[in-house]
Amino acid sequence: MKIFHFPCLEDNYSYLIIDEGTKEAAVVDPVEPEKLVSAANEHGLNLKLVLTTHHHWDHAGGNEKIKEMVPGIKVYGGSLDNVKGCTNKVENGDKVSLGADVNILALHTPCHTKGHISYYVTGKEGENPAVFTGDTLFIAGCGKFFEGTAEQMYQSLCVTLGSLPKPTQVYCGHEYTLKNLQFGLAVEPDNVKIQKKLSWAQKQREAGLPTIPSTIEEEMETNPFMRAELPDVQAKVGCQSPVEALRKIRQMKDNWRG
């Protein structure tokens, strides 16, 4: 399994997932489909699937165009999200295969939108799995609660995504990492892992490089929203439960002007 990232629009990421044995490929949120189709052609790939994380235009806005460019391509999207161009609706637990060795599991991760799907992707034995989290989980952050509640985001982040294997590579929908880590330090000023990751992320961005992927393990160490489970973090924001802390940290982030 190979994964390539494509910066799109101002700060979005689209992705190409390749089954190396068969050269079959899937694209995640191809908002600028020309970029991905041209890369696929260059590498002699057979584009089979579009995996849409949610209905917002900067993720689903290229679906109709890619269907014109690649006749017969299947477009997957959450059954509760009205995803543009969707041909195959998925629900939590649905499985899709790509080529000989790549398996995709749909995880319902609602809150940012009510039908948001994260795609958990596994390759051959020995390869690290990956998860494409759209706008639910960002590196050191999470999406705004546009269509859901703190309870739902807790379930999506800490239960559904938090229970994935720790080495799982996290590929999110936007390059928001620097601001997220700066905010994380405002919540936990003494967290050395956040300090180190911020310094690394600054160097990456100065060099014009991405900060993806992260891992589930790194997120548990540096993401204030996933750390809302910890009594220490709850105390820092004056709360006594994970959901309450998550709600409070989201409010703080919405008002933060760091």
Explained architecture:
There is one protein chain. This protein is an alpha/beta fold. Helix 4 (150-161) crosses helix 9 (242-255) and helix 5 (177-187) runs antiparallel to helix 6. The longest helix is centred in the last third of the chain and has 15 residues, at 192-206. The mean pLDDT is 98. It is globular. Helices cover 33% and strands 26% of the residues. GO terms for molecular function: hydroxyacylglutathione hydrolase activity; metal ion binding. Belongs to the metallo-beta-lactamase superfamily. Glyoxalase II family. Pfam families: HAGH_C, Lactamase_B. Keywords: Hydrolase, Metal-binding, Zinc.
Task: Break the fold down into its secondary structure elements and pairings.
Blueprint lengths: L1 E7 L3 E8 L4 E5 L4 H10 L3 E6 L5 H4 L2 H7 L4 E5 L9 E3 L4 E4 L3 E7 L8 E6 L7 E5 L2 E2 L2 E2 L7 H12 L7 E4 L4 H11 L4 H15 L7 E2 H7 L8 H6 L5 H14 L3
Parallel strand pairs: 3-4, 4-5, 5-6, 10-13
Antiparallel strand pairs: 1-2, 2-3, 7-8, 8-9, 9-10, 11-12, 13-14
Helix pairs in contact: 4-9, 5-6
Counted by DSSP, the helix tally is: 9
Please indicate the percent range of residues in DSSP E strands (runs of 2 or more). Answer: 25-35%
**What is the radius of gyration computed over CA atoms, rounded to a whole number of angstroms?**
18 Å
Helix percent band: 25-40%
According to DSSP, the number of beta strands is: 14
- Runs with pLDDT <50, length 5+? none
Which structural class should the secondary elements be placed in?
alpha/beta
Largest sheet: 6 strands, mixed
Morphology call: globular
Give the N-to-C terminal Cα separation: 38 Å
Strand line-up across the major sheet? 1-2-3-4-5-6
The SSE order reads: EEEHEHHEEEEEEEEHEHHEHHH
Mean pLDDT, to the nearest integer, reads 98
